[in-house]
Write a structure and sequence with these properties.
- The structure is a single chain.
- The protein is mostly beta strands.
- The protein has one domain.
- It contains two helices and 13 strands; from the N terminus they run E-E-E-H-E-E-E-E-E-E-H-E-E-E-E.
- The longest helix is centred in the C-terminal third of the chain and has 12 residues.
């Protein structure tokens, strides 16, 4: 499997829009609390902090080494080289922050794991997102093993606990082709979404390849 290591320099935050006074991005270097020891040791302490006018909203970390599919080719149905149910990283929502997932579900302060998933291709989800790729948040107290969760039903059920509802807590991954080299927040005026954009490095043997990521961290679906 390919291995992805997020380069520390990509954590240097910049803001590319006139809305910088509303939300900003900071680099952090502190391991998240509340994860199980088995997952904690896999998480890169260098992460991202999303802030608003009243302070920190949420922190996000990736694993130190992320396995990606070798020779992966993106398609309309799958943009990212991850496996459904794969552990990707962790999310911490700050105390007192008003923070929602992509569906507008309110999420409580605390620590969550993040796993990759694909939106079901059925009528219930038509038009809710321009892509099928998502990160699902799971309560860290429930998701304690780093191994992948193969069952879609189990993944959805555990993630729903993060939102206190019957629907998983999700964050949409969008087309990575325009991802920035250095980490930054981009504002999508048309959809009114704030997108975390960065490029990491993956290696296969002695060959380095780029892995681009764009994740909606603030904003919700209109569907």
């Amino acid at each position: 499997m390919l291995r992805l290591t997020v380069v520390a320099v990509c954590l240097l935050a910049t803001v590319a829009t006139a809305r910088a006074d509303e939300h900003d991005l900071e680099a952090i270097n502190e391991a998240p609390k509340g994860l199980s020891p088995a997952i904690m040791k896999l998480v890169n302490p260098e992460g991202f902090r999303i802030t608003g006018k009243d302070g920190a909203l949420a922190d996000l970390w990736l694993l130190k080494d992320l396995a990606v599919e070798p020779g992966f080719k993106s398609s309309l149905s799958k943009l990212y080289a991850f496996q459904p149910g794969q552990l990707i990283g962790a999310l911490r929502i700050a105390e007192g922050a008003e923070y929602t997932d992509f569906r507008g579900q309110e999420m409580k302060a605390g620590t969550y794991t993040l796993r990759y998933g694909l939106q079901p291709m059925d009528g219930n989800h038509a038009g809710t997102s321009e892509t099928s790729d998502f990160l699902l948040a799971l309560p860290a107290a429930v998701d304690t093993k780093p191994e992948g969760i193969a069952s879609k039903e189990e993944l959805a059920k555990e993630s729903a606990q993060a939102a206190g509802s019957t629907h998983p807590a999700i964050f949409s991954l969008v087309d990575p082709k325009r991802a920035s080299r250095k980490a930054k927040l981009e504002f999508d005026d048309f959809n009114e979404h704030w997108i975390l954009s960065f490029t990491g490095e993956a290696k296969e043997g002695d060959t380095s390849v780029k892995l681009k990521v764009r994740l909606i961290v603030i904003g919700r679906s209109e569907g």
